[in-house]
Write a structure and sequence with these properties.
The protein is of the alpha/beta class. The protein folds into two domains: 174 residues, Rossmann fold (3-Layer(aba) Sandwich), CATH 3.40.50; 197 residues, Up-down Bundle (Dehydroquinate synthase-like, alpha domain). The chain is built from 15 helices and eight strands. The strands form two sheets. The protein has a six-stranded parallel β-sheet with strand order 1-8-5-4-2-3, sandwiched between helices. It has a two-stranded antiparallel ribbon with strand order 6-7. Helix 7 runs antiparallel to helix 8, helix 8 runs antiparallel to helix 9 and helix 11 packs across helix 15. The radius of gyration is 20 Å and the shape is globular. It binds 5,6-dihydroxy-NADP and zinc ion. 5,6-dihydroxy-NADP (NZQ) binds next to helix 5, strand 6 and helix 7.
């Protein structure tokens, strides 16, 4: 079935080697109080912090800083940001970093002026926003999540051992502008670079494996998958290949600015499982996705066989001659797995800090759902054991 849709995405993108030059003109559209949010130390090590501070000073801004945002950002960090926003009457939250920094900034933007328990209202109950929202903008230094052009905010509540994603149905939470210079991603460590690639690939598959109509979105998703495979293979050999890094960066943004999902059914269960894996192990998001995906798809492929056959033929060029549909589909999943190995991603959960005791806890706390097959905790446990 082709679903009706309304699509609006207000984020202005500045992309390329000169993208940062647009920062001063963008800053002129906002008041003078800026909350600068960033991670542990990468932006200071690369010199980006000094450049951005220089621009903020030159445009007469008063800067408050929230530093040290964790990969897999914590709810306590969102709360700290909320306090800074209120105390300093912040006009713009400027996130400089990867998806964690941008997600944390959006969480702050939504929660700073909410009077009640924001975790419960926004993340657990997925409640509507009725309070004032603070504008957010981003300068991206690591690519994968598409947080730079969506309303998602994935936050970990350490006390509750929950990592919950919130996609706010509220365009005002999209970054007002995002600055994407692929050169800023050159210094990302290899494990984070391949984690980002796996995250993009997973976003594409979560949107692809659902529905079997002749839908334009599926053709677009296949096109982005092919571009991503091609450029990832080049970037692994030469991380300074500008064309490859730039393609990967744009694949990421396109991968989850929601335009590729329009009108179609989707899945997202691999993400639900990985988020809880992250809550227990703190492993990089894309690495968890890459380990879980082949096991999950082997578990569900018979429920969506025609699509898995299409995936094998169109993406991995599996030779269908003399093979059954099931054999073709399984070869496609094996090719996906080999691609993740080629990137140097570990194969098993035990390699990223998961223990056997954690598996039932992860399965039980994962939000059940799925696309072709409805997954319950028992199904999820089997998938986890199959990739442990
Ligand atoms: O903290 P610093 O020192 O900045 O180091 C970071 C961090 O350790 C480092 N890094 C970033 N840019 C760098 C760099 N190191 C050197 N040079 C640079 N230029 O990379 C590490 C990882 O950064 P992080 O922001 O955590 O990575 P990512 O962009 O993958 O974000 C992951 C988070 O986003 C969520 C994930 O669950 C996870 O919490 N997601 C958000 C989504 C959304 N908003 O729609 C959807 C995704 O599915 C995902 O769930
Ligand atoms: Zn993801």
């Amino acid at each position: 079935m082709i679903y009706d849709f309304t699509y609006q995405n207000p984020t202005k993108i500045h992309f390329g080697k000169t993208a940062l030059e647009h920062l001063p003109e963008e800053l002129n559209n906002f008041g003078s109080n800026i909350l600068l949010v960033y991670g542990k130390n990468s932006i200071k090590a690369t010199g980006l912090y000094d450049k951005i501070m220089g621009m903020l000073m030159a445009t007469g801004k008063k800067v408050t800083e929230l530093a040290g945002i964790n990969s897999n950002p914590r709810y306590s960090q969102v709360m700290e940001g909320c306090r800074l926003v209120r105390e300093n009457n912040i006009d713009l939250i400027l996130a400089v970093g990867g998806g964690s920094v941008v997600d944390c900034s959006k969480g702050i933007a939504a929660s700073a002026y909410y009077d009640g328990d924001a975790w419960k209202h926004y993340w657990e109950e997925q409640g509507l926003i009725e309070n004032k929202v603070v504008p957010v903008a981003s300068v991206l230094t690591m690519t994968g999540t598409a947080s730079e052009m969506n309303t998602g905010s994935v936050i970990t509540n350490e006390d509750k051992k929950l990592k919950l994603g919130r996609v706010f149905p509220f365009p005002d939470l999209c970054p007002k502008f995002s600055i994407l210079n692929p050169e800023f991603t050159y210094t990302v460590p290899k494990i984070q670079m391949v984690s980002g690639i796996a995250d993009i690939f997973s976003h594409l598959m979560e949107q692809y494996f659902g529905g079997d109509d002749d839908c334009t979105s599926d053709y677009l998703l296949e096109g982005v998958m092919l571009s991503l495979i091609n450029s990832s293979r080049k970037a692994i050999v030469d991380p300074h290949d500008y064309e490859a890094r730039s393609n990967i960066m744009w694949c990421a943004t396109m991968g989850l600015n929601k335009i590729l999902a329009l009108s179609k059914m989707q899945d997202w269960e691999v993400h639900m499982i990985e988020h809880q894996l992250g809550a227990y192990t703190d492993c990089p998001h894309g690495i968890g996705l890459a380990i879980i995906s082949p096991a999950y798809y082997r578990y569900i492929y018979k429920c969506g066989l025609p699509k898995f056959v299409r995936f094998a033929k169109n993406i991995w060029k599996v030779d269908a001659n003399g093979k059954t549909d099931e054999q073709i589909a399984l070869e496609g999943i094996a090719s996906l797995e080999s691609f993740f190995r080629e990137l140097g991603i570990p194969a098993m959960l035990r390699e990223v800090g998961a223990t056997e005791e954690m598996l039932p806890l992860i399965a039980k706390s994962t939000i059940p759902g799925g696309g072709y097959k409805k997954m319950e905790a028992d199904d999820i446990l089997v998938v986890l054991k199959n990739c442990f």
